[in-house]
Amino acid sequence: DQQVKQNSPSLSVQEGRISILNCDYTNSMFDYFLWYKKYPAEGPTFLISISSIKDKNEDGRFTVFLNKSAKHLSLHIVPSQPGDSAVYFCAASARVGNMLTFGGGTRLMVKP
Amino acid sequence: EAQVTQNPRYLITVTGKKLTVTCSQNMNHEYMSWYRQDPGLGLRQIYYSMNVEVTDKGDVPEGYKVSRKEKRNFPLILESPSPNQTSLYFCASKLPGQGPSPLHFGNGTRLTVT
After folding, report:
1. Quick check: A43 and B43 CB within 8 A?
2. Rounded mean pLDDT of chain A?
């Protein structure tokens, strides 16, 4: 059973609007969460992360929110740009082991 | 330029013919890992290595082997490939010992087994 789930396989947003990508997890031992972005024919690249001691982390247009009680995190992109069109993966790890568990990915399409 | 390099980028082979996918990193990272990406399943870890001569199974190790004789190289070996190993493979590396830290990924190897 998948411990990290991204229930929306795709999302389409107009340029300039907000994109919200969601991720749910089941393992309560997870305490560090990351988002990766992947363009076609390239490997995933790290975007932003958050530790479980925080509920929000912001980096420019990207903000990640963590709701530990709901075991839910989300990535907000404001404003969305066509260059943001990619597949986004959320990932989680527990400090013991350093292994990352990935969700299935969400394909974001930002229309000009 | 700091990078993880995989070869080949594309590979078509037949069932049972042994193959090796190479992975090399120039960042002096101790931790290296192999993932496969399949539709709807995200990236699943095959094997990882915390350091030279130290390897361990990930979530989906069946049908794969790895070796870590040098810090920079971490080849993935399929002794007898089968069609269910058709997938997109990624090698990744990072520095352990700093707590969780982001993985650096290669550009992937698309493998087709007929």
Report:
1. no
2. 94
